[in-house]
Amino acid sequence: MAVNPNCKCGVTCRGRLNETIGFIGGGNMAKAIAEGIVKKGLVDYKQLIVSGPRDGSLEYWRDLGSKTTTQNGDVVCDADIIFLAVKPHILPSAVANIYETLKKPIKGKLFVSILAGITLGALENCLATLEGSRVIRVMPNTPMMVGEGCTVFCPGQRASDDDIALVKTLLETSGVCKQVPESLINAVGALAGSGPAFVYLMIEALSDGGVKMGIPRAMATNFAAQTVLGAAKMVLESGKHTGVLKDEVCSPGGTTITGIHALEKGGVRGAIMDAVEAAAKKSAELGQKK
Question: CA 165, CA 81: separation in Å to the nearest integer?
Answer without folding.
Answer: 12
